[in-house]
Amino acid sequence: MDRTMKRLILLALMTFNCTLVCADTLTLKAGYPESYVVKKGDTLWDISATFLSDPWKWPSLWNVNPQIANPHLIYPGDQLTLVFIDGQPRLQINGVAAQGKARVRKSPEGRIIAKNNAVPVVDLALIENYLTQHRVVDSLWLAEQPMVLAGESPSRHHVVGDIIYIDAQLPLNQKYGIYERGREFFNTETAEPLGQEAILAATGQVIDSGKVSKVRLLSNFRETKAGFKLLPLEDDSLMSAYFMPKAAQLTTPAAVLAIESMQREAGKLNVVYIDKGTQDGVEPGAVFSIYRDGEVIVIDNKGLPVPATERTAYDNLMALVSSDRTVQMPDVYHGQLLVFKVFDKASFGLILSTERPVRVDDKLVAPESLVLRGQ
Question: Are 231 and 141 spatial neighbours (Cβ–Cβ below 8 Å)?
Fold first, then answer.
């Protein structure tokens, strides 16, 4: 191996190591407090945002040990103090380093944490409905599932206590979710189907099994109608509420697939679908930065930029046929979102910060420091 090649390899290793160090560096927010008393309704994200420019890096702030179950349990009334250990900022609980070893409090597993219990990552009230009531499933699979035919009541809509008829022989006493079809999603670039939105309308229990089974409705989130589908209930639907934020790891950018509320734009604390899921390596807790393509500037015959609002049809034509007449502006930062529920080819994300409204097709990439963006 010649000397030049050795130097290149050494430089690459030094760059890689520097990247790892920079990725782990915590940047404190201007005006950060030296201590903080946890209040009812606080979230780990909000508390970390009090101290850090990038709240998603809170596991490092708390010095979390991934080998310890629920190491981040803090409670309303705890006093947090900022200290520096080996030059890095760390939070202490009541004067004891928050490493998960100093104090142990048990909390129920696999369900929403009560408001007077441990502080959650984000406000669970914002995502509870999406954890329990929304799914994205394969559209062909959904079409094959048992269907609501009608009900004992002559009404077209059925509510709690009503008995509905299902076109399949179902296990007696088995509980199901009754789902309404929502939107069907496709990749905007490849047209690949990403799944069918299924919205939980009710739950029910089989009381009579036969060629046409009877199901009594146990709960309602919306009225049930003929044509709705029966799916097994997700027993682990709430487990996605427990995760640690981490930078998204994708080789290609993701995109905002749809806004759950079907509005034109989304803002802080709104929920959106993204076009990547478990098949792409997305996991609950993944944090994305949201960007929109920068404007394409057209240069006129005099060599001057033409604002988009003043372009003529000729300017737009020249922009299409001549790359020499256009300049692509940098992508514009719009905010950050946190993935909290993942399906095969799509995911749910909660927008946790915005500087500009978020729209469908906005790009999602691994987060970068606010300091690097000059903010």
Answer: no
Q: Please work out, in degrees rounded to the nearest 5, the angle formed at the alpha carbon of residue 90 by the alpha carbons of 97 and 281.
A: 105
Residue with more model confidence, 73 or 50: 50
Whether residue 369 contacts residue 257, with contact meaning beta carbons closer than 8 Å, is answered with no
Rounded to whole angstroms, the Cα distance separating 293 from 352 reads: 20
Nearest residue to 160 via CA among 215, 84, 94:
215
The count of domains in the chain is 3
Cα distance between residue 72 and residue 100, in whole Å: 6
Check residue 21 and report its DSSP letter. H
Cα distances (angstroms) measured from residue 324 to each of 297, 301, 309, 315, 321: 11, 11, 20, 12, 9
Q: Are 206 and 172 in contact (CB under 8 A)?
A: yes
| Residue 262 to residue 58: CA distance in whole angstroms | 32
User: Model confidence over 220-259: pLDDT tens digits?
Assistant: 999 999 999 999 987 655 555 567 788 898 878 899 999 9
Reported confidence tier of residue 72, pLDDT bands at 50, 70, 90: low
Six-digit token pair at 205?
């229990």
Where do runs of H (alpha helix) occur along the chain? 3-24, 44-51, 58-61, 124-133, 139-143, 313-321
What is the pLDDT at residue 201?
Answer: 95
Task: Give the CATH number for residue 228.
Answer: 2.40.10
- Residue 130 in any domain: the answer is no
Separation of CA 304 from chain center:
42
pTM of the predicted model as reported, rounded to 2 decimal places:
0.75
- Whether 219 and 158 map to the same domain: the answer is yes
How much is the pLDDT for 344?
Answer: 94
**Which pLDDT does position 64 carry in this prediction?**
57
* CATH value at residue 257: 2.40.33
Question: Which residues span the domain enclosing 247?
Answer: 243-294+330-365
Handedness of CA 58, 64, 70, 76 (dihedral sign): negative
